[in-house]
Amino acid sequence: MTPDPIHRDIEKQAQRAILQRALFRPENAIIIAGALLLAVFFPAPFPLTLPWFGAWTWLALGALGVTGMVAATLTDKQEASKAVADMFREEHDPSLIKDNELKAKYLRALEYYDRLQEVASQMKSQVLRERTGESVNQMEEWVANIYHLALRLQAFRADGILNRDRQQVPQALRDLQKRQQMETNPAVREQLDATVAVKRQQYENIRSLDTLMQKADLQLDNSIAALGTAYSQLLLIGTSREIDNNAARRLQESVHDEVASLQDLVTSINEVYDYHTEGLG
């Protein structure tokens, strides 16, 4: 199974961050400074035994030291995992979720995700580490969709225009319908018919959006509960005495299904609701 797009993007950004971190580590600065100082003040420390040892030798040793530090950083799996995790949190910043209830749910999802990574990395066999690692990598998209869903629910709850229309449109529609029944002037009645039709469509759109967001709210809870289930599944796989490829495969399939379901829901919301500008899309 290939890594999901979000994981690939974050991994690429993390690789650049790791390279920058490898080049600008404090240890490299110390090595370079030490090599320069030794080259200036002790250019030939062993004139009798090592006459060829000169200032350039200190510089070469410094360059080798920096190269070794960079190589060690780039091949450090823990460093790579930490960089990917840090990058994921930068891309999906919990502080942007101001709604306390939604923020608590997202932080719970992040907690599950962190524990899932730990458990997957501690699997006894290489085969299981690879199989479960693929599933956990795909969970980045799962948690990312939870984050996007939380942001949309937050915007929906705080949408002043929708909250106002939800209160005013039903009464406005009833008032227009009363006028429509009482109006005897054909021209005015025709205009009222058109106005009632528009207002009724607005009312139906609000109801449909409310239903969709109620579904999203429930899906958010279900998805976090499913993360908890995945965590318990991973623990069972890790404690099994034998390699359970079927359990690992079922975990991969459940992760794939959950990611697809969440993505479909986020896409559906995007199609009808512009949460950046408030209001129906």
Write up this protein.
There is one protein chain. With 281 residues, the protein is mostly helical. Helices cover 81% and strands 0% of the residues. Helix 6 packs parallel to helix 9, helix 7 runs antiparallel to helix 8 and helix 8 packs antiparallel against helix 9 (245-272). The model has no long low-confidence stretch (mean pLDDT 83).
Give the helix/strand layout.
Elements: H1 5-23, H2 26-41, H3 55-74, H4 77-91, H5 100-121, H6 126-157, H7 160-182, H8 186-239, H9 245-272
Helix pairs in contact: 1-3, 1-4, 2-3, 5-6, 5-8, 6-8, 6-9, 7-8, 8-9
Briefly characterize the structure:
With 281 residues, this protein is mainly α. It has 9 helices and no strands.
Count of helix runs: 9
Query: Secondary-structure element sequence?
Result: HHHHHHHHH
Unreliable runs, pLDDT <50, ≥5 residues?
Answer: none
Radius of gyration: 30 Å
Helix content: over 70%
Strand content: under 5%
Structural class: mainly alpha
Number of strands: 0
User: What distance lies between the first and last C-alpha atoms, to the nearest angstrom?
Assistant: 35 Å
Principal-axis shape equals: elongated
**Global mean pLDDT:** 83
Q: Which descriptors would you attach to this protein?
A:
single chain; 281 residues; mainly alpha; 0% strand; elongated
